[in-house]
Design brief:
Length: 133
């Protein structure tokens, strides 16, 4: 596994050493979707594994996508809404592989997301893309 935290200095650590991350030092990176930024906490580009903070501006929308493998989200602030319901601050939702939905955040949200592989966005293309996972 080639897991790493971009923008964190973990050079020279032994292979099995813990990787401590100063999250406040990581930059917010715009996704390919307007109003959605992310801080990558850990990623393995070879497998698609990703743990990231997502910041949704009020009214931001993540278009129709399919979860190729299980997706997990913990909402820290705000809420995420889809056709099946709403997950609010302090709550958690996970979605099975193969599930499809689109998400919007009327008031904005800060979300901790866990992915085993990238989402497949259905409105924009048929290829996985990690830019908004």
């Amino acid at each position: 596994m080639a897991a790493k935290t971009p923008h964190a200095n973990h050079e020279g650590l032994p292979a099995l050493a813990s990787r401590y991350v100063e999250v406040s030092d990581l930059p917010w990176t715009p996704s390919r979707f307007p109003g959605i930024d992310m801080k990558i906490l850990m990623e393995d580009p070879d497998s698609g594994l990703l743990t990231a903070l997502f910041r949704f501006q009020p009214g931001a929308r993540l278009p129709l996508h399919e979860h190729v493998r299980i997706e997990q989200s913990f909402v820290i602030e705000g809420s995420m809404v889809d056709s099946q319901g709403e997950v609010t601050a302090g709550n958690y939702v996970w979605r099975p592989a193969g599930s499809r939905h689109e998400v919007h955040c009327p008031e904005g949200a800060l979300v901790l997301g866990f992915f085993l592989s990238p989402n497949r966005f259905l409105e924009t293309d048929d290829e996985p893309n990690g830019s908004a996972h």
